[in-house]
Specification:
Blueprint (H helix, E strand, L loop, with lengths): L1 H45 L14 E2 L7 H13 L6 E10 L2 E9 L3 E11 L2 E8 L1
Parallel strand pairs: 1-5
Antiparallel strand pairs: 2-3, 3-4, 4-5
Amino acid sequence: MKTKMVVLGLAAMTMTACTSCEDDNNEAVKVLNTTKVTELLKAIETGAREPVAYINAKNYAQHNLGVADGLAGFGEALSTLAQYPEPAKINTVRVFKDGDYVVAHTDYNFFGPKVGFDVFRFENDKITEYWDVI
């Protein structure tokens, strides 16, 4: 009887593990998009150009009224920040994913310290929309 219980327990654990494996695959996508957001935000500080490739070059809506749509608007915003004598500092505190959306809580320091909540919408693994509250 104890052997049957152990076997049933192991079978249940195996079935749970298989379900967990499927979740791990979904988790990999979550990590990928959250990493993209973190790297793109950090690029404001470092000037790295590679994360800009995470943005959909043909379809990117910027919902911050101070920044124009598209890659040109994003690039212009980065250029403006780069002109100031004190470099921007970016510390992404936490990042969450829900479906096609990634939300980042970020401590900014450009033109003085700020806290921001950034929302990115992904479509086909590319950022297509952006909102912020700083």
